[in-house]
Amino acid sequence: MLIFLQQQETEMLKLLEQLVNIDSGSLHKKGVDEIGNMLKQQYEALGFVVRIKNEREYGNHLVIQHKDALDPQIILLAHMDTVFPEGTVAERPFKIEGNRAFGPGVIDMKASLVTLLFAIKGLINAGHHSYKNVKIVLNSDEEVGSITSRPLIEQQAKGKKYALVMEPARKDGSLVSSRKGKGNYTISVVGKAAHSGIEPEKGRSAIEELAHKIIQLHELSDLENGISVNVGLIEGGSSVNTVSDHAVAHIDIRIAEMDQAESLEEKLEEICATTDVSGTKISLEGEINRPPMEKNKKTEALLSVIKEVGEKIGVTIEDTATGGGSDASFTSALGIATIDGLGPVGGNPHSEKEYLEIDTLVPRTLLLATIIQRLTKN
């Protein structure tokens, strides 16, 4: 299979260039659907059936499995959207410099879309029927929290034994064996406006109230136990000489274990149950929208198999934990053995300096194909 994939590297790069040079930000439905249609044609040419789940606001999602598949035990997850707005490609299209490829979404995760497709091609070419043992879900809103695709992922994952998630490998090549859970909350404060020079005593400052709450919220962080609370965005007031009558804080919360969620939410509600500035009112909205991906016995067993596969083909496998979220959290929360970071190696995602290490395309494609083959035997 290695020789076949080496012969396909030029084709892999051609497809990658095509994908990168299509704007497919999460809110650019036309571009995401163009990516989906390209990949649909590629998989159908290999004998796969592609079902489309239509969406109005976001791009359509694809559910893919071979026409002869009966009960696939492996689910593969990848996303087609990026964080970049329409017009980014015109400013900095795909390019290659030395061993690195650059462009919007090149590593997160258009290179993974390529390696996933060519892993299937490699299995077909080698005559390994394990390509019938996979179900692939390509979603279109991962970068904004998998708002519409989460129910689809959870539905398609039920009954599966393994979940392989195609987020890129870390810069050092490590796979991801655990991720923090993530929540988003909003605190809104209503105060009473007044002129800050003429009659400040008649005002009730929403900003002052929010300032008290921000300090209390940040004190909830417990980094030693994997809990972080960050007020990352605030807004409020109408003018510098007016006591503010409104203020809003947007909060990002990360947890290492799902058991931490309930007590943390209780503390949030307790903070917002009373005011420090009399005459102001507070409302709290939000939820934990991604459960943590916890490294459990099932994950460790799957990781052990992957390390054996890596050793067999000459790819050293290490694993790591990360605070970032992905769709791996959903399959992990269902009790499915889940490993993430199975895409190629690169770095600086979500930035202008995002890159792919080109010489990892073939080895990581071979690794994925061999993992699928090995898991099908188990």
Automatic annotation (TrEMBL):
* Pfam families for the chain: M20_dimer, Peptidase_M20
Q: What is its EC number?
A: 3.4.17.11
In alphabetical order, the GO MF annotations are: carboxypeptidase activity; metal ion binding
Question: Is the keyword Cell division assigned to this protein?
Answer: no
**Protein keywords:** Carboxypeptidase, Hydrolase, Metal-binding, Protease
Query: Which residues are responsible for catalysis?
Result: 81, 142
Alphabetical list of InterPro entries matching this protein: Bact_exopeptidase_dim_dom, Pept_M20_glutamate_carboxypep, Peptidase_M20, Peptidase_M20_dimer, Peptidase_M20A
> Peptidase M20 dimerisation domain location, by residue?
178-277
At the top level, the lineage of the source is Bacteria
What is the top EC class of this enzyme, as a single word?
hydrolase
Tell whether Acetylation is among the UniProt keywords: no
Please list the coiled coil stretches.
Answer: none
What name goes with this protein?
A: Glutamate carboxypeptidase
Q: Name its species.
A: Salirhabdus euzebyi
